[in-house]
Amino acid sequence: MANPAVVSLEAPRLSLSSMAREASGVLELPRLALSAASLRNEPRGDGSRVIVVPGFGADDRSTWLLRQFLNQLGHDARGWGRGLNRGPVPDSIEAIGELVEGLDEPVSLVGWSLGGTIAREVARDVPQRVRRVVTFGSPVIGGPKYTTVAGIASQQGWDLDEIEAAVEERKRTPLRVPVTAIYSRRDGVVAWQACIDPEGSGPIEHVEVEATHLGLGFSADVYRLVARRLAARPEPA
Q: So what's the pLDDT on residue 155?
């Protein structure tokens, strides 16, 4: 049975206007450059490891600027090191979970789009190894069902209802790690409503910004939020 909280949700429709709007996300790059001086004043990191997970179909090159920014602030930001993020998602969750379990201390996870979904689920599985999670443009409802990937996924034989049910099943284990979910109503790839966590439990914070899905990865507002959340110390349990 469909989750009543998402009955009205629909995947964003691909059109020339929506593609043009998403392409305008590259305008975030000059804005980011103009914000460079103020971004250097963001809170400093303490040298702890941060793993940044790219979105669907992307690799570590897509998060290079964000990682450079975080490293300049004193974090130890690394890519996920698994090439293109194409799935299967359960395999990626397991692999990153094993990676963080093998490190000397807990890490923070940052993820763009599908990368954020993976980061959240790693934190769900091994909360003792994750300090906090920051996501942007990441669907937490329905998997790919409410994204522009839905049509292609269906044509390739993916059972979107089955994936949605699996996503809901995982929520039986509540999140215990602080999560900041950044979303935008201008997102033309992921329905913004699908980025709002309906779990109603766990330390989850939602923050809205103005950017396209592509632009989220180069938004000065997103970079500020990531830096501030990573520098914050989790409150004692």
A: 77
Give 190's DSSP letter: B
Residues 6+ apart with CB under 8 A from 125: 93, 97, 173
Instruction: Please state, as a whole number, how many other Cβ atoms lie within 10 Å of the Cβ of residue 204.
Output: 20
pLDDT digits (tens, 9 = 90+) for 128-170: 999 999 999 999 999 989 998 887 777 777 888 899 899 999 9
Q: Looking at per-residue confidence, does 233 or 65 come out higher?
A: 65
Q: Which fold has domain 31-231?
A: Rossmann fold (3.40.50)
pLDDT given at position 2: 35
For residue 136, the tally of other CB atoms under 10 A from its CB is 30
- The number of helices, as runs of H, and strands, as runs of E, in the chain is 10, 6
Residues 6+ apart with CB under 8 A from 237: none
Residue whose structure tokens are 């691909």 = 14
What are the distances in angstroms from CA 114 to CA 117, 121, 200, 235? 5, 11, 21, 27
Per-residue DSSP letters for 59-97? -GGGGHHHHHHHHHTT-EEEE--SSS----HHHHHHHHH
| pTM summary value | 0.90
Q: At 214, which amino acid appears?
A: L
**Are the C-beta atoms of residues 156 and 141 closer than 8 Å to each other?**
no
pLDDT at 38 over 60: yes
Question: Is the separation of the CB atoms in 200 and 11 below 8 Å?
Answer: no
